[in-house]
């Protein structure tokens, strides 16, 4: 049962392993200010001692937003072991975003304002150099691909066979990344 309590009666969980970075935290604060009804739909979960099991960052953001009361739900029936399990499972992000759907059916600026980090690549005027879009952030990105076994094998073999022209390292010494970059460049040349 959801009840509303004074925010000062809730205690943050010192054993909460979840962190939130400054920019995401500010997005959460903004989200709570703009859409406080969200808290009724996803209240803070506490144990009988009013220690948070789920919602440490929401509590912190509610305090930052100046809220005096927040909705909670008590998880009175959970054993201490189940409480520990809940803390982790409440923070695990199952599933993945359908990036094509987000790009085609949602306002991506709005989705980013809501706290979703969108993947992206910032290429400059068409040359082979990558441009930075985050100030001091290194010009490297890790990319993950889901491929069929046959596709993965073809790419691995192509990466072994490709020679990076003129020994160019494209800003790093990652031979796999450089080989993949070269394959893409050669493919782009063939498409012309």
Describe this structure in words.
The chain has helices at 22-34, 37-41, 56-64, 80-89, 99-105, 108-113, 149-161, 175-191; strands at 2-6, 44-46, 52-54, 69-74. With 192 residues, it is α+β, with helices and mostly antiparallel strands. Strands 1-4-2-3 form a four-stranded mixed sheet. The N and C termini lie far apart (63 Å).
Give the N-terminus to C-terminus distance in angstroms. 63 Å
Biggest sheet architecture: 4 strands, mixed
Average residue pLDDT: 77
Nearest-angstrom radius of gyration?
23 Å
- The helix-and-strand class reads alpha+beta
Helix content: 40-55%
Order of helices and strands: EHHEEHEHHHHH
Shape summary: elongated
Number of strands: 4
Helical element count?
A: 8
Record the strand order, biggest sheet.
1-4-2-3
Q: State which percent range the strand residues make up.
A: 5-15%
- Which blocks of ≥5 consecutive residues have pLDDT under 50? 121-134
């Amino acid at each position: 049962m959801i009840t509303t309590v004074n925010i000062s009666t809730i205690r943050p969980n010192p054993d909460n392993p979840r962190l939130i970075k400054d920019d995401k935290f500010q997005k959460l604060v903004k989200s709570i200010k703009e859409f406080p009804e969200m808290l009724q739909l996803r209240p803070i979960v506490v144990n009988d001692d009013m220690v948070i099991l789920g919602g440490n960052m929401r509590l912190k953001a509610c305090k930052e937003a100046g809220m005096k009361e927040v909705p909670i739900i008590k998880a009175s029936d959970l054993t201490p072991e189940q409480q520990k399990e809940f803390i982790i499972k409440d923070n695990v992000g199952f599933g993945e975003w359908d990036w094509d759907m987000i790009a085609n059916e949602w306002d991506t600026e709005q989705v980013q304002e809501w706290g979703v980090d969108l993947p992206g690549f910032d290429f400059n005027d068409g040359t082979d150099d990558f441009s930075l879009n985050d100030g001091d952030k290194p010009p490297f990105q890790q990319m993950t691909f889901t491929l069929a076994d046959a596709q993965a094998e073809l790419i691995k073999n192509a990466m072994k066979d490709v020679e990076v022209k003129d020994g160019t390292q494209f800003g790093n010494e990652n031979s796999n990344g450089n080989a993949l970059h070269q394959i893409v460049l050669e493919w782009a040349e063939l498409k012309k």
